[in-house]
Write a structure and sequence with these properties.
By secondary structure, the chain is an all-alpha fold. It has four helices and no strands. The mean pLDDT is 80.
């Protein structure tokens, strides 16, 4: 028997990638010559979003993979479209690594309880 996917689960899986896309788009719209938001997004906000994804989806492996893929695509597409940044795969790879570490540690902590 197939397991039904609720609307809430679907939206919570898509939400992080939409949040990333919206943050980058809002920075692009309000961009000035000295915009530090670009650097803050890459080195602070995106890693935090990916780490939170790893913690939140620790019990849901399939949703974690889907959410991570969608968030990675969102970062790569938004930065390549609006900022023409070609070296984002390295930053996304580091964010994914942090996400996987958070996912693994959270699962290990839950297993010990």
């Amino acid at each position: 028997m197939k397991k039904k996917i609720s609307i809430i689960t679907m939206l919570s899986t898509i939400f992080p990638s939409l949040l990333i896309f919206a943050l980058v788009y809002s920075d692009h719209i309000t961009q000035s010559d000295n915009s530090m938001a670009f650097i803050v997004f890459i080195y602070l906000v995106f890693p935090l979003i990916f780490i939170v994804q790893g913690i939140v989806y620790s019990g849901l492996g399939n949703y974690f993979i889907l959410c991570s893929i969608l968030s990675s695509i969102s970062v790569l597409l938004s930065f390549s479209i609006w900022y023409n940044v070609a070296d984002m795969p390295l930053s996304v790879g580091i964010c994914l690594l942090l996400s996987i570490i958070a996912f693994t540690l959270t699962n290990k902590i839950k297993a010990k309880k």
